[in-house]
Amino acid sequence: MSLRVHSIPTKLARSYFIESDEGLYLVDTGAPGSEETVLKLMEKLGRDDLRLIYITHAHLDHYGSAAALRRITGAPIAIHRADAERMARGETHLGEIRGWGKLIGAFKKMLEPHMKPEATRPDILLDDGDRLDEWGLDAKVVHIPGHTHGSSCLLVEGRLAFVGDLLSTVGRLHAQRFFAEDWSQIPESLERLKALGVEWVYAGHGRRALSGPGLDKLNVQ
Fold first, then answer.
1. What class has domain 4-215?
2. Cα separation of 88 and 54, whole Å?
């Protein structure tokens, strides 16, 4: 079986299954309470071999169901070490907020008491360039900080990039423009992504995947 990517509309974000003969791999988990959506797709696929849960960054809409899924499936949780402590404390740090992000941030404050993420200590700490061959996946970690200090891209087979919230395909394609711990790093991370020469890009928000060549038209607004 060649790799297959399955998009998962989890709560508040978009997660992905990477399916191969070696096993099933989950990129992000959605907000708290998303585990049933993930498990139902696993059942539909006829798979019970989740090998790894990869978290692109420590925001509640991306790691909120990680602890629950680890308990149910036994799969370890991996994240870039720069975001590990915030996830371990059950935190979401939005950094400097711009534009419409202020409304989203206000909504988050209202929502969080009812959707508080479980403190989730990772099993695997990752750094830029680390590979996931040990877990049966031809993939490596690409550090793309800015949105959070530990935001990372999972680069699979050198051609598929799972980029979290560096960019979004909600509405018109755009780079991150609402929340960043370091806005100066967003353009640098985007250029690093462009330089990878990937075939497909999968964002943390938005229904559609982006073809790699489409990145050339994307600029930071």
1. alpha beta
2. 15
| Beta-carbon count within 10 A of 4 CB | 10
Residue 127, C-beta contacts closer than 8 angstroms, at least 6 positions apart: 80, 81, 141, 143
| SS3 category, 109 | helix
The residues spanned by each domain of the chain are 4-215
Residue pointed to by tokens 């590979």? 131
Q: Are 19 and 6 in contact (CB under 8 A)?
A: yes
pLDDT > 70 in the chain, percent: 92
- Per residue in 150-168, pLDDT (tens digit) is 999 999 999 999 999 999 9
E strands along 60-209, which residues?
77-80, 96-97, 124-126, 139-143, 152-156, 160-162, 167-168, 174-175, 179-180, 200-202
